[in-house]
């Protein structure tokens, strides 16, 4: 016969003890724990700080009752990251990433041993793929690191630590323990605006005026991650036989995908990071011998013969063909498909190709019906796209569509003509302007 819960020996033993009381911690103690675990710098941010307001709903989901975010950095070997040999650079990312996850686990364990709750989300992967293609990360390490005073974002969208530069990986530990002293953002940006990241990016994702082309970076650099993998699987499925597949995908690309599956996804480029000279420990080499720095660090990456993955008709394709004619262009699909009409609208700034929108001025109003019902106004002017919900000003084009049908159009399953003929899409206004707008979206 089963023992009643209240009579179970373990229950009796636990109830005979005094209730555990969490041990108070200090930021000095927590910093010592982090450094001993292998972190190179650490900072602390209370959950109610305005700088991390965007993260709060997600970290509270991961750890209800979270009060403090512990941000830390670990250094990488910058010569490995700078190597034109992708296997060397990627190995550095993966090995340092594994180390950073171990650091986060050690910090969390120390907090738990003091009677507090703690969670250590992955520094990179795995992520919450059930949310794909929306936000898949538990916490944005960059946002927390900036708030914690571990650096500022550079032109290339990497965090630059004031001492270590951008040759770092980031981690965050969530805990319900309060700390007695927080850290604050640094009051300057270590980025020296040298534009070397602009010159090195093979697909023009980083631009000198501060614009960042998400679709260009995601399509090339992350070819063997997420969306690129989805596209590769679709290519396999679409191929008639082995010969047809080999006409679509080279053997080099196939074995590279195998390597990513077997040993960890391979980044196709981290050139923006490799050439960055910012940071006290890094800058001297650049300042003291710029010509040598360009010759040894920048030009080998620019001159490397390699495939560049681009979306057909994208700004990245035009940039790569003009700037790097010796690199082979591979037209691929993004593998990204929105899972909601609202998701499509929110993704527009990420897939909008401002080069193709040169001299374009238009206001488009989308009215979605069916499963999702909302209105969004899109404005395009001077190569920029902005989104306004529920705007009633006059529009050049009004698009009325069933939300599910529009998702089919956005993913390429249906054409706008097909939807119009079936009454699932109605267009009022300048149809040529609508067609031009759609051509400015990289998919």
Automatic annotation (TrEMBL):
Keyword hit for Iron: yes
Superkingdom, taxonomy of origin: Bacteria
Keywords annotated in UniProt: Iron, Iron-sulfur, Metal-binding
The 4Fe-4S ferredoxin-type domain, residue ranges: 182-211
Pfam families to which the protein is assigned, alphabetical: Fer4, SCP2
Gene3D superfamilies in the record: 3.30.70.3270, SCP2 sterol-binding domain
This protein's name: SCP2 sterol-binding domain-containing protein
Upper taxonomic lineage: Bacteria, Pseudomonadati, Myxococcota, Polyangia, Nannocystales
